[in-house]
Each structure stands twice: as C-alpha cells, then as structure tokens.
Design a protein that fits this description.
The structure is a single chain. The chain is α+β, with helices and mostly antiparallel strands. The chain has one domain. The chain is built from 8 helices and 13 strands. Helix 3 packs across helix 6 and helix 7 crosses helix 8. The longest helix is centred in the N-terminal third of the chain and has 37 residues. 35% of the residues are buried.
Length: 337
C-alpha cells in the first residue's frame, strides 16, 4: 500500500475522530432547541366541545373514520411489559399503529375517554373490540389467557398511536392550570369516574397542532370502587353504584369522595403511602361554581349518549343500564349543588 493512500486514510480517521463529537453536539443542540420551542408553545387542557347534544359518544374522539376494522388483520410489532395491564403494539393493513391493552381496564377506559371528551377534555383515541386477529403473535409474557389459538385475542382496547411529540408528564399539584375552571372541572371528572389511580405517570403532555395538550392518558382505573388495595376495583358496577360521590358541601366549595391510601400497614412503604394520601386531595376544595359548570356541560348529554359510552365499551345490557343510571345520578348531583 502506497504512502499516499496511508496518509489519506489517516487523514480521514483524524477527521472522523473530531467530526463525530461535533456532529453529536450539534444534534443535541438542535434537539434541545426543538424541545425549548415546544415548551414555549401555548398550553391547553380543554377546548369547547360545541354542541354536546350532537356528539357521537359511541365512536368517541376519533370518530368512525379512525376506528379500527373489526374484521381486519393486525400484525404484531412488540410487547410492552411496563405498567399494570398487559399491552402490545400492532399495525393494521393501512399501516396505522395501535396499542393493544388487555385485562380489567379495557372496558372502563373506553367508556371513560368518551365522557371526558364530551366534557371538552383531550383524550386518546380508544376503541373496544371483543376480539381481533393478530398475525405473527408470539407467546405473550403477560395476557396470554386472552389469546385463543395462535392469532385470536379476546376483549381488547385499541389505542390509536398518532405521530405526536411527547413532552413528558404533569402533576395535579404543579401545572399551568391550577385554579382555573377547566382544571377544577377535570378534578371533578376524576371523582365522577371514580379514578383512584391519579399518578403523574398517567398524565401526558402532547404536542399537537402547535400547542401543548395536557391530558389524563390512562383512565383504566375507573368505574369501580375507590379505596385501599384490598377494596378498590375497576369496571365494577356494584362497587361504582355503592360509592359515595359528594363527600362534603360547604358555602363556597365542595369535596368529592376519593379513597386511595393503602391500609395503615402500607405506611411501611412511606413514599407510596404519601403519594396515595396526596391523591385523595385532588377532588377536594373544588369551587362550587366550577363543579356546577361541569355539571351543566354534562347535563347536555342525553340518556342515549351516555348509554353509547358503555355500549362502545362492550358492556352487557344490564351493565349499560346500571352505569347509565349512576352517571346520570352524579350529573344531577353536580347540578343540584
């Protein structure tokens, strides 16, 4: 090999040695600049839902146009082993990616997103299907009991995975909306749904359409009983019906019922105990005017629309009747404050 070739290769190596860190630094700088730009976008938590009485609560936020094909075939992508519920990602015949959730949260979450959306809050596009066909499905680490044969998966919630930038999580006690009517309304919604899992990790900030949208991105721990680990439940009609909604009404504000702290022995794990105790504060000291504002919004829903929330979630006729009655009862309680 000639001396010129060796010198040329040596020069290239030296150039690469210095260029790679510079390129990496430039990429990091561009990424940080983009993140700063996104953090400066206007923050929103609520938008005017318009004519609430005309909303289609069966199809929800995504409408029928974004709904998955119930007779279509999905292709397995990867399993998500994080969180309480079994989950995995799939792609449909049109190239749309979906997050599949299994277990006791799928029906409650589907119904809950529709009520939140009807009240003007941002939600994920969730759909329930009694079964789907998934090609290339491996043996799942979690949720294998919902698989029939090699390709059929029963009782699934499909969450459409839009191409949005995730900025991170937000806290119930530190966010740009503290004290606003819209934020207080969301606090009431958590009590109305009996959402006892108010961890920050379940709250998302999404960049969409030139704005930062604050939403509760996981509402699966709903429509059951709030309480400690031994008494709380999800998608439990009897527990939901037996739960108290309004805890204490005062002259200017109101407390709604929320039980989340562990049994006293759970105080051994102090960080978790303190976090759960704090969750109970979320629906307390809500201004009466803001609670009534939410009640007036939800009061525009017809019985048929509320039933559609639970029909879309695949509940039985008896469960649809029961949940509809209880939701109507809670809306009436807000409007009588």
């Amino acid at each position: 090999m000639s001396t010129n070739i060796l010198n040329h290769r040596l020069a290239l190596l030296v150039l690469l040695f210095f260029a790679v860190p510079i390129m990496a630094t430039a990429h990091k700088h561009d990424k940080n600049k983009q993140r700063k730009f996104e953090r400066d976008l206007p923050a929103v938590m609520w938008r005017d839902p318009g004519d609430i009485a005309a909303l289609n609560l069966f199809d929800g936020a995504g409408g029928s146009q974004d709904a998955p094909d119930p007779n279509g075939t999905f292709t397995f992508l990867e399993e998500d082993r994080v969180g309480t519920s079994p989950k995995f990602d799939v792609e449909d015949a049109n190239g749309v990616k979906w997050r599949v959730k299994l277990g006791e949260e799928v029906q409650a979450e589907t119904a809950a997103t529709r009520l939140l959306w009807a009240a003007g809050y941002f939600v994920d596009e969730d759909y329930y299907l009694p079964e789907i066909k998934v090609e290339r499905l491996p043996r799942l680490h979690r949720g294998e009991q919902y698989v029939v044969g090699s390709e059929i998966v029963r009782n699934v919630r499909l969450e459409r995975k839009p191409k949005v930038e995730k900025l991170g999580k937000w806290s119930w006690f530190k966010n740009p909306f503290i004290g606003t009517r819209e934020f207080n309304g969301l606090r009431v919604m958590m009590a109305l749904l009996n959402n006892w899992d108010l961890k920050n990790i379940n709250n998302s900030i999404d960049v969409v359409g030139g704005e930062r949208r604050y939403l509760v991105s996981d509402v699966g721990a709903t429509f059951g009983r709030t309480g400690d680990p031994f008494t709380r439940s999800k998608s439990d009609l009897k527990g939901y019906e037996e739960s108290r909604f309004v805890a204490k009404e005062r002259r200017v504000d109101v407390d709604f019922t929320m039980h989340s702290r562990p049994f006293i022995l759970g105080a051994i794990d102090l960080p978790n105990y303190d976090k759960r105790v704090l969750m109970e504060e979320v629906p307390r000291r809500v201004p009466l005017a803001d609670a009534k504002w939410l009640g007036q919004l939800l009061g525009q829903l017809s019985e048929r629309q509320i039933r559609d929330c639970f029909r879309a979630a695949g509940y039985s006729p008896e469960q649809i009747d029961g949940y509809t009655r209880e939701v109507q009862k809670r809306i009436a309680a807000l409007n009588s404050l």
